[in-house]
Amino acid sequence: MAEEQEPKLLEASPHPPPPAEASPPPRPTLDPSRSLSLSLLKALIKDLAAVYNAECLSHCQHLLQLQSNSDQISF
What pLDDT, in 10s, does the model give residues 43-63? Predict the structure, then answer.
């Protein structure tokens, strides 16, 4: 019959392999189309933030007016 083969175990070497020299990854080149896209996205976010801020101020003014109206009715 076939002999059972024992799995071969890897022997640990007495010395670990020398560490690879860590060199910084190469810097990606600047892609002008990506830079333009980022600038447009930044401008859109800035516009959206301005609209959101104006809407928040409008709601705050409305709430203050309601509060002052309720104070006038209470007194």
Answer: 999 999 999 999 999 999 999
In angstroms, rounded to a whole number, what is the distance separating the alpha carbons of residues 10 and 15? Answer: 14
Query: How would you write the chain as a 3-class SS string?
Result: CCCCCCCCCCCCCCCCCCCCCCCCCCCCCCCHHHHHHHHHHHHHHHHHHHHHHHHHHHHHHHHHHHHHHHHHHHC
- Rounded CA-CA distance 31/22 in Å is 26
Distance CA 75, CA 72 (A): 6
pTM over 0.85: no
